[in-house]
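Researcher: Here's the sequence for the chain we discussed earlier.
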Amino acid sequence: ETPPPRLHLDLLGGPRQAEVVERLLGLGARRLDIGQGEVPWVVLADPEGNPFCVMEERPEYVASGPIAALPLDSADPARDVSFWAELSGWVPVGSPAHGVLRHPSGRGPLLEICPEPAPKTPAKNRFHLDIRLEQGDEPDAVLARVRALGGSVVGHDWGELPWQVVTDPSGNELCLLPARRG
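Model: Thanks. This is the structure I predict for it:
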């Protein structure tokens, strides 16, 4: 048994929500009750039991593509929106949700920073986000920025890795990947 995920996928359903749900059920997903009650989205689990949602139509999903949003649990959404915006370069967007970021192009999934239903357990998150450094980013300077923003560097015994594991201020793990070569 694992703790509930702090990050999950919200897939675009929109006006075809019922059709998308039926297609996913046919591919091995199953309906999941996580106590969501009466909501306009549908909660499913993939064949391995990982929850995800198929979302209703919303104006903020028009430019999202098949993945509408990446909801991430946070102990302090305002603080963590600042952390993720600074680290990723994504920008806040107007939304009824608590704290929402999107790539500066205005396209792609939303990163929704949501109030956590329960504090993070010491266990590693099943899913996490990766951020790729840009050419010219100095890894030590990025790690210093992570710490200054309230995050921390994760110590591990996984051997030598080409990336750095850190956490956001709420303890959610993320990996800082090296810049692409050339």
